[in-house]
User: Fold this.
Amino acid sequence: MIKAKKSLGQNFLIDPIILNKIVELVNIKNKAVLEIGPGTGNLTDYILKKKPKKLIVIEKDNFLAFNLQSKFNEQINIINKDVLEINELLLCEEKLIVFGNLPYNISTEILSKWVTNINNKFWFDTLILMFQKEVADRIIAKFNTPNYGRLSILSNWKLNIKKILDVDPESFSPKPKIKSTILLFVPKNNFHKIKDPKNLEKITRIFFSHRRKMLKKPFNQVFNGDQKILEKLNFNLNMRPQNLDYETYYKLAQEYEKLTS
Ligand code: SAM
Assistant:
């Protein structure tokens, strides 16, 4: 019996119906696959049954990585490291299909890293990721809704996102206190070109620093009241941060880059 480590977000998925649903979402036969945080290898087993060409797994826990090695031998390539320290571009020559029941304490950090690391070259085809429901709700939120914010804007910049389903705590061992949600992401063919993602992060940080206040203060702080930008992007300063859609934030980041270049 393996003792789960809370510090590494270890809640292992044990529900065969959900495990099967996850690997049925895309065709992985003869494809290169990456799994983040395979843990005890439950999902790994289901992935292997679908006969991928190659399966790379990244597991930080030394003990679990050792166990996976003896369980699967050369069927998988194990990288016993922290996913946040990996350069994904060097993992595989082919584009990867990525699965991950992510460690919840770093799930947004992983997604942000992947969105901001992509320049024009995507290293993945599809991401199928499990988040805590509350985070998934923020990722997929549309403007004018309470969950809309910085994470929604960043996540939707380069990715099309689809909600697959909510998963109950009973599907895991140990049982988490909260519900989870599976999301599927595919790269967009076209997205707004922003030279440095830090500029999008900066704009959204300043604009969302007071969610309930009008846009006047943050806009003036960054754009010095520039009327032309307001007219071009078609909003007014009585609006609140959550009233501007994703696109307007990408355009604001572009305007900021013009100002500062
Ligand atoms: N995929 C397994 C499952 O569904 O049964 C386990 C999922 S569990 C929520 C998260 C897994 O990620 C654990 O195995 C944990 O050890 C691993 N993990 C935690 N932090 C990590 C990190 N920074 N890099 C790589 N793996 C990590």
